[in-house]
Write a structure and sequence with these properties.
By secondary structure, the chain is of the alpha/beta class. It is built from 15 helices and 14 strands. The protein binds uridine-5'-diphosphate-glucuronic acid.
Length: 437
Amino acid sequence: MFVRRIAVVGTGYVGLTTGACLASLGHRVICADIDERRVEELRGGRVAILEPGLAELVTEGLAAGRLDFVVGARNAVPRAEVVFLCVPTPMGEGGAANLAAVESVAAEVSGLLRPNCVVVNKSTVPVGTAARTAALLGRADVAVVSNPEFLREGSAVTDFLNPDRIVVGCDAQDAAERVAALYARLGAPTVLTDAASAEMVKYAANCFLAMKLSYVNAVAELCERLGADVLDVTEGIGYDRRIGQAFLSPGPGWGGSCLPKDTHALLQAAAAADFDFPLLQASLDTNTRQRNRMTDKVRAAVGGSLDGVHIGLLGLTFKAGTDDLRDSPALAVAAALRAEGAVLVAYDPGVRASVPGMTDGVEVADDPVKAAQGAAAIVVLTEWPEFRMLDWGRLAEVVANRVVVDTRNLLDADVLRRVGFEVLGVGRRPQLPPVGR
Ligand code: UGA
């Protein structure tokens, strides 16, 4: 394997995972960030992102001398043969991706890049960005490659080191091959294509996942109406290898920093290309409907108005295994409950204190019993496995009403029934009544 000198610009969960994992594959990596404090922490081996295995890889890379951190892209790129851009591309005006960070890094480094190096866009960027980046760099000797990431938060290191596939796109085939070779040790199927197609793969994948989830959430609603059970239905369809078992769990809607942003961005790109994409629009509409439906369930569980009613929430993050609250369906449901006057106390293993601008209007407790104390209903909003293991007997003693709205179908309803709880899931056939009622 060729050991390459690599620069990674941006140390968010994508950049840091990319840098640390490439170092673990034997490459020599310098990661740059504009945040001086973050760089200082990383040089000391301290990783603020909750990502299993990442801190260990950073420590290993530092100790082996294969990984280093610097402030500013200009200090990372001069000797690099490959430069990864892993900067944020937040949702901008009208849902389109905001490329300001990509553009400013391109402007900053264009004159400093080593001759004949390769610049790689790993950030999720609209189709055409590789070409635009190449124009911004204005360097005929530097190829721009699209190499989208498929890392899930909470399992980014595992996803990086065990990829389903590597996608590399560039109009100059040799540059694409050089980037693909960085991952050779992983032995993953590799798709070599042009830059626009590689950029499209990322959106097509995330939007497909969003559609799959909206479809499942719609099927769950229909199951409720027709007396079927969505868990049996998804198991039944998931064995079909063309469908697959993954990503079939209904919930309070999908969220996070990627799926909502990417669905909006692709819709925007479609509109700009004068293409009507009702299938994708319907996935977004179904997602809004699903979030609202969860509020209806809570209202039904407490038997009417939510005004002044105490609700205990279990889960705030957009999914389990992360502390990320961005576009969390849990927060959307909480906001809707709040708007109807509910008094909310939440417990989340990844969020131990209020986060200004995110959890406003929700009291964040450091213990599930505190969240449940006096609650007219408990609502499970994030699929943290530890919620299954809670001392439900203890929670039964402190709540005002023994009813749980389980928006993730996470809990063992039999266990809860035995301590007197009624459990209302999503898409489930009506459950047996609690024992002793
Ligand atoms: C997503 C993609 O899964 C990654 O492949 C991609 O690289 C990443 O976006 C990205 O673009 O960077 P992530 O945002 O970490 O990863 O979250 P997911 O694990 O995809 O979950 C998204 C949402 O769907 C969450 O709210 C989750 O709770 C929900 N979900 C997921 C369900 O409701 N049911 C499921 O069966 C699976």
